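User: Need the bound-state model for calcium ion:
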Amino acid sequence: MKNQVIADIFREIAEMLEIKDENVFRIRAYERAARNIESMPEDIELFIKENRVKDLPGIGNDLEAKIKEIVATGGLKYLDELKKDVPQGIIDMLNIPGVGPKTAKLLHEKLGIVDIVMLERMAHAGKIKVLPGMREKTEENILRGLEILKRGRDRMDIKTASDIAFSFVGRLKKLKEVRKIDTAGSLRRMKDTVRDIDILVSSEQPEKVMDALTSSPDIKEVLAKGPTKASIITKDGTQVDVRVVEPASYGAALLYFTGSKAHNIKLRQLAIKKDLKLSEYGIFRKKKAIAGKTEKEMYDTLGLDYIAPELREDRGEIEAAEKKRLPMLVELKDIKGDLHAHSTWSDGGSSIEEVVLKARRLGYEYIAITDHSQGLKIAGGLSDKELDIKKQEIYRLRKKYSDIKILFGAEVDVDSDGNLDYPDDILREMDIVIAAIHIGFKQSPEKITRRLTKACQNKHVDIIAHPTGRLWGAREPYELDFEEIFKVASDTSTALEINSFPQRLDLNDIYSRMARDAGVLIAVNTDAHLAEQLELMRFGVATARRGWLEKKDILNTLSFGRLTQKLGIDW
Ligand code: DGT
Ligand code: CA
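Assistant: Bound-state model below.
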């Protein structure tokens, strides 16, 4: 589906036109077209095939031709032309979250800023806020935007890391010299973001493994290559470190390279207390190795229960393992259904039926179809009339697929005053109501907190989605009074979501643990916008595990019968 590509290009055109001070109506026309195309549920290629592009609102001959060119070639000559005489410095600045064309142009003209490095220097030197027409806040926003951009480049989201690791591990696994292979580091601990990828191999012939690795096709650069370890940079710029160890010390090495550093240090101190020495080669009494082959053996020798990688952050897991009080962490197989998924009725790319079929393949007992509410026009939110038709569609599918329960719901927008986007008599008709913030992120922490607690207090609201609004590499989480939110969520039996989308993953590990401790139930959902994205659940479950959550802490581990009781659904 090329809708997003087209929308992105149209938006870039609007920015370029704005920089060139072109007619505002033309600029708005591109912005409007971008919004419409982005939010339309159908694949635009279908409109081309059926020669119906001009039926779309705001699309005439000119835009039709451009759409066709983008679909055919993936690019647009007109945009390339427009960009030719816009200075690169301005184009670079547009990549910073929160910097628009007007600001970028002004900065270039008044301060001669040619790249992001220069912009950062000027901002730190306070040169921006003194420019006429610039507000003090703009400088702050620029610095914050730069920070977000840099961190986004420094670390990648867990899914990107996991996909890259999967391809390397898959290739190396095929070598007959490889006995065992695992990812280590932050990726194995399933941290939400990852700086580099660590891979550990057990083999008696390390050179063979090294040669195979450094000759793989997707490598840009070999940073270092020794007999047992190598560091490479992939074509997309990710660093991958591979180490090969002997089978006898594989467990010790896996433990060491999985980390975290803080967890390792604590373990080493514990070993010293027991007159033992712990290293990446094993556990030693005097000079004699007494453990090293497996991680389990290592923990056993230290008198600890096995600690799952997700817990290894020195957040009390070693003490709990000593007392045999580690949590029974939730597992992917405990998840009985997904309570947050979109369809073509709003901004999803799959029909309800496609989502349902995928949920059945995952073995789910239930699936909730929760499209956006009416106010969220850019995401194709549904009016009450459309809701009625959608409901009929769900009823039809319920008959067709009796082995899965299809819940009728919505992701309802919470406005800047904390009001919900549908009236109570509409919400009452729904099996499940998810409330979420999509606008007004810049309000004060008190105000956003109040919006969310007000949403919790609505008796129809079951879940608050992506509670902190963060989008990795694009938007920081908004600040909230978590204590207050947890209290109200607990009092009103409103579940808080761990959103499994890799750029979101919020609530994060720390806050989901605090929420649980405050008596709040957690829902682990995918927020899928395509049927395939129901698979993202594993990242949400990993975050829940990092938050020490058990099956009983999670709403969607309940059987359908118990879920209906909990949500008060009349089935
Ligand atoms: P990242 O890459 O920033 O996402 O996080 P990690 O945890 O993967 O960190 P990385 O790649 O620097 O190191 C991988 C593991 O190696 C780390 O989790 C623990 C271990 N490690 C690295 N340096 C040290 C150290 O100085 N002391 C100890 N005890 N362990 C270390
Ligand atoms: Ca790492």
